[in-house]
Amino acid sequence: MSLLQTINEPDDLRKLGRKQLPELAAEIRQFLIAQVSRTGGHLGPNLGVVELTIALHRVFDSPHDPIIFDTGHQSYVHKILTGRRDDFVSLRQTNGLSGYPSRAESEHDWMENSHASTGLSWAEGMARGFKLRGEHERTVAVVVGDGALTGGMAWEALNNIAVDDDLPLVIVVNDNGRSYSPTVGGLSRHLSAIRADPRYEQALDAVKNTMQRGPLGRQTYDLLHGMKSGLKDVLAPQVLFSDLGLKYLGPIDGHNINVLIDTLKQAKGFRGPVLVHAVTQKGRGFRAAEQHEKDHFHAVGCINATTGEPIGACDQVTWTEAFGQEMVEIGDEHPEVVALTAAMLHPVGLGRFAAAHPDRIFDVGIAEQHAVASAAGLASTGLHPVVAVYSTFLNRAFDQLLMDVGLHQLGVTIVLDRAGITGPDGASHNGVWDVSIAGLVPGLMLASPRDRARLRDAMRLAITVDDAPTLIRYSKEKLPHPLPAVSSRDGLDMLSMDPDARVLVVAWGAMCGPALQVAELLRAQGIAATVVDPVWGLPINAALVELATQHQLVVTMEDNIVVGGLGSRLELAMDAAGVEVPMRQFGVPHRFLDAGSRSEILAAIGLTPQSVARQVTETVSHLDASSAEQFNHQRSH
Ligand SMILES: Cc1ncc(C[n+]2csc(CCOP(=O)(O)OP(=O)(O)O)c2C)c(N)n1
Q1: Most CB within 10 Å of its CB: which of 16, 225, 495, 574?
Q2: What is the arithmetic mean of pLDDT over 416-423?
Q3: Which of the following CATH numbers is that of domain 4-197+237-290: 3.40.50.720, 2.40.10.10, 3.40.718.10, 3.40.50.970?
């Protein structure tokens, strides 16, 4: 029996001898590679935290001592050690193991995160809570990546943590030098300076020796701190953190389990906020991941477990690639266009733009708020910024979009990848809020292109708008086949027309294809329909309201939540214009969705052509029945 098979809870881990732990680490690595290559998932980050997670569970008594993983994508090893090893076959699938911490799965998961840089705030709140409640024997441990440390929230938390001398909190900075790409910014420059300095090795040894000799607790810390102060000039992060008032231990080798355990014990014994700086390697132990320059297998689909080659990859172009291509061309033609990404250069498709226009791309780190406010600044100088982020992460920058861009009437283009239902990453990663929140910004123009030609048109128009924010959203899926309009008028694209149309189906983006199928299904029931794509859906086009008056029923289809989506905005506009045509709005229900594939989720929420057509047919027959009743009623009087 392997060591791994004997570990069903953290207590089992504590029964192993220290000498067995490297063997366990090797088994966990093999397990991760074998499992994640079949399901896809965050392989590189988890390979990097194997020893760290083992050490954390040796030293802290989870769940009594909460162990928090900032962002949470690197919690697989934690899951393995807390009784969920056998569930990895279903990783990121419907009713399967979540790719992030999940309270429903385990009492060892205190927090359901996935958006970065919130971990320190949670941990601070928990440590403060335990202290206030008199639960003095509990310590909170939080792991935060150097990438997540580029997020402003992390610094807001540190600023608060630093002033509470007896907050029982151990912060582990998991420093692998990477977000997806190499981590950016001043802090990261400090961290890499330390890794590149020859005295780093000496510092490692010094820390190790001190650990072995000294008793645990404040005395040892003071000794260590005194010794480290001598290295102040080179060990910049220490200065940075200790100037803030935080105790700093490190840098330590994040793959040496003994050193990790000793340092964490030391930190736990201190009974105050301590920061442990562990240097790790993303993708550690899987050659293909270690050598993968782009992102060290940050997140993979199904891959060959030996070579790391993708399995089942197809040639069909994605929206991301089409956007990237378009940006290169726009960049060539428009010197005023600059691009911003929040630590996701390649995932959002800006890699080629960066190569072609290296002085006009800004990777700001995991700092969406800064990206949008900085874009406002750039726009105010006459440039046209394009901020490309995943739809779900725009949530972070709402205030900046509203106040810095919207209020100032600045020409900033926001491009949202992963809009709509994304699926396997669970509730938090669906891009289903952007229309509702961005739609609150007065003057903002919002398009959800249905195919590549429309993406191109939307981008070309967006970069010419210099007095309002523009937003373009598209899905994670492959590009669909071209969906030409049969005619266009007043900015509306008519996708299907019928002289006898009674129903107007309004759809945009990924819902245009399904809307055409709805029209087909309705036709089979003898109900003629018009299908229209409003193209720039927000603000609501007056021509769309006018078109509504020519039909007996308006149906909207969108992959955003129904609250504040296209349908509800059209309803408001119709109401304001005194138009009383009945409506049915189909979109994402206003609740958090379970993980699953996109098609499974769409089926579960009834956002399929069949389900919509069935419900519309029922509504039409109700309308017919009530108008027949009304007709009879009028005749009898
Ligand atoms: C607010 C937010 N923006 C972007 C992301 C996408 N994202 C997920 S992990 C990650 C990089 C994290 O780097 P780091 O914290 O150093 O962890 P590592 O993967 O290197 O272990 C990014 C940018 C996110 N989860 N949340």
Answers
A1: 495
A2: 96
A3: 3.40.50.970
Find the catalytic residue in 282, 473, 569, 584: 282
| Ligand 1 within 6 A of CB of 284 | no
In this structure, of 251-260, 414-423, 600-609, 625-634, the range with the lowest mean pLDDT score is: 625-634
482 vs 186, higher pLDDT: 482
How does DSSP assign 167-215, residue by residue? Answer: --EEEEEEE-SBSSSB--SHHHHHHHHHHHSTHHHHHHHHHHHHHHHSP
> Is 272 a pocket residue for ligand 1 (Cβ < 6 Å)?
no
Sign of the four-CA dihedral 106, 109, 110, 112: negative
The 3-state DSSP class for residue 30 equals helix
CA 71 to ligand 1 centroid distance, Å: 6
| Helices within 444-530 (DSSP H only) | 452-462, 512-524
Q: Using the atom order of ligand 1, give the atom closest to the CA of residue 115.
A: 26
Fold observed for domain 319-473: Rossmann fold (3.40.50)
* Ligand 1 atom at minimal distance to the Cα of residue 148: 15
Q: Where are the domains of the chain?
A: 4-197+237-290, 198-236, 319-473, 487-629
What's the confidence (pLDDT) of residue 220? 45
Assess whether 368 carries a catalytic annotation. Answer: yes
Cα distances from 136 to residues 160, 384, 458, in angstroms, run 20, 54, 58
State how far the alpha carbon of 253 is from the alpha carbons of 51, 202, 206, 345, 358, in Å: 10, 12, 12, 29, 34
- Second-level CATH architecture of 487-629: 3-Layer(aba) Sandwich (3.40)
CA 366 / ligand 1 centre spacing (Å): 7
Average pLDDT value for residue range 85-92:
96
Residue 420 DSSP symbol: B
CA distance 265 to 260: 8
Give the tens place of pLDDT for each residue, 58-82.
999 999 999 999 999 999 999 999 9
Active site residue 268: no
